[in-house]
Amino acid sequence: MLDNFFLRKRLKLSLLIVLILAITYGAILIAEYDIIKGFTSIPEAFVWGVQNFYPDANAFSRLPNILNKLIETVLISVASASTAAILAFLFAILGSHTTRINGFFASISRLFATLFRNIDVAVWSMILLFSFGQSALTGYFALFFVSFGFLTRAFTETIDEVSNDSVEALRATGASYISTITNAVVPSSAPQLISWLLFMIETNIRSATLVGILTGTGIGFLFDLYYKSLDYHSASLVVIMVVIAILALEALSNFIRRVIL
């Protein structure tokens, strides 16, 4: 009996592997991708990167402009995540099984979270371009919508997990709905909510570069401009500054988490 069980498991695994290989091979044929040429071009690409993708003196002369755009990108990322967190918290209160008013509002809240979370930030950028054009506002709203969807889901699950006991205790004493939220939900879930917000800010800064390329704003626009004008040295400096900003923010976020958690 046990041998038959493992035999079926191995058979299913083998069929899955065959299916994945068949799909991969079909995709290669459709895309007309040359595997051998792809792998043999890796050393050439590495050599080209070493020879061209590094900042020179001319690139460093553009550092003030790069820093200005980087600050703009960071501020948009922080603003979009922070404002989305406020709205997400309200929707999470309505959507949580612990604090919901009724099933209708809870379903609406979860539906909005699913909708905004599952549409990629690049898709939001392309949609919003029709309404707002290439502007910082387009990038802000694209990051805001994705942040709102993700944080609503994360906040809802956090409130469900962290606040249940304290909410039930306050309800047993006859506390009002608002009093329950302010005295039970907020204090018990605040550290986790702040941790999720910090994570969203980090994610937004990473996504903001791609959004900037699409919307013609921020640090992404500068990278696109330098790269398309074949100024690879300046483009490499943009990449380096973005990496430094992400690492610095991550270190700051980890420090804040250690303090509040």
Describe the structure.
The chain has 261 residues and is mainly alpha-helical. The model has no long low-confidence stretch (mean pLDDT 83). The chain is globular, with a radius of gyration of 24 Å. 87% of the residues lie in helices and 0% in strands. The chain starts with a helix and ends with a helix. It has helices at 2-31, 35-52, 57-60, 63-95, 103-118, 121-132, 136-162, 164-172, 177-215, 218-228, 232-260. The chain has 2 domains: 2-52, no CATH class; 57-260, MetI-like (MetI-like fold, Orthogonal Bundle), CATH 1.10.3720. The chain has 11 helices and no strands.
Identify the notable features of this structure and list them briefly:
mainly alpha; 2 domains; 11 helices
Strand content: under 5%
Which CATH architecture of the largest domain would you pick?
Orthogonal Bundle
Q: Give the CA-CA distance, first to last residue.
A: 49 Å
User: Based on the structure, what is the oligomeric state of the protein chains?
Assistant: single chain
Query: Could you name the CATH homologous superfamily of the largest domain?
Result: MetI-like
The shape, in one word, is globular
Main sheet characteristics? none
> What is the helix content?
over 70%
CATH hierarchy class name of the largest domain: Mainly Alpha
